[in-house]
Amino acid sequence: MKIVYQAYGREDIVRQVLFSVVSLKSRAESTEGWTIEIYTDQPDRLQSFFAGWPEVKIVPITTADIQGWRGAIDFVHRVKLKILEKATESLHEPLIYLDGDTYFAKDPTALFAQISPTRSLMHIRESRLDEARDPLTKKIAKFVRKNSFSVDGASTQIPQSSEMWNAGVIGIHPANFQLLPLMVELTDQMYGRYQKHVMEQLAVSYLLQTKTVVASSHLEVIHYWPSKEAFDAAIGNFLASRTNASEALATIGDFHWPAPIQPQIKRSWLSRLFGP
Questions:
Q1: Which of 144, 145, 97 is nearest to 122 (CA)?
Q2: Using one digit for the tens of pLDDT, what is the confidence trace for 32-42?
Q3: ∠ CA(208), CA(210), CA(213), 5° rounding?
Q4: CA separation (Å) from 77 to 42, 118, 200, 259?
Q5: CB atoms near residue 74 (< 10 Å)
Q6: What CA–CA distance (Å, rounded) separates 167 from 161?
């Protein structure tokens, strides 16, 4: 099992990843056999922080790498997909990607073990395109209804029945790694025509649904983006007096947890009638 984070640029983003990894270690019964790979432009700092944690592998990246991965469309979330492509080179076991603004509420071992050729993970289901209530997803639904895209050489229309999932967590089996370059291809086309910040999320959601059942990880992983300001302050205060990951892990019980604002879980009309 390989778990992947990106930690580059702003200080708050790097701190979030440090804390997320510590929270994972605090919840998992064992991380034996896992690799936690962090792509960062601050390798010396992270090597020092995670000293003595052999499961953590620091992968240095440069400003040129980051800019190249943003592509011709200059899209920050395209970097995520390119990192996943790199992380899966010669990989023959499942991969889990996590945004930095996450923490673990439960041991994820059983959840991660469910990843299979027919089952993937994302964070939480947001909405079917044709059931969207928020203005952004409504606009995106209208955009994809009026556009077709070339995916792996085939003209593709994204169905309105497609579900938008939050991409703060992505879990993929090796049997489906071939979808990663298609996610980049689709993101390039969609964002190139319509600059909305969730286009990579739609590409991941749609393509995983073409091959697998997408399962939620929101009970095990809290994605606190709706209350990020409060968490950033709490994490900054906590890490300010901890010099390494082992010290942070030993004292994580002293962390002052802000109350996360959970996004509403939206179900289709069929599931509301007949159950989950």
A1: 97
A2: 999 999 999 99
A3: 60
A4: 19, 25, 6, 27
A5: 10
A6: 18
Residue 217: closest CA among 87, 99, 128:
99
User: Residue written as tokens 């984070």?
Assistant: 5
Tokens of 20: 């997320």
Chain centroid to CA 259: how far? 21
What are the two backbone dihedrals, phi and then psi, of residue 133, each rounded to the nearest 5 degrees? -115, -30
Nearest CA-CA partner of 264 in 113, 131, 67, 77? 131
Residues in the chain: 276
Alpha carbon distances (Å) from 56 to 75, 84, 156, 237? 28, 17, 39, 23
pLDDT tens column, 69-120: 999 999 999 999 999 999 999 999 999 999 999 999 999 999 999 999 999 9
Question: What's the token pair of residue 272?
Answer: 């509301």
Topology classification of domain 2-253: Spore Coat Polysaccharide Biosynthesis Protein SpsA; Chain A (3.90.550)
Q: What is the pLDDT of residues 129-141, one digit of tens each?
A: 999 999 999 999 9
Alpha-carbon separation of residue 158 from 138, 184, 187, 220 (angstroms): 14, 15, 13, 30
Flag whether the pTM goes above 0.90. Answer: yes
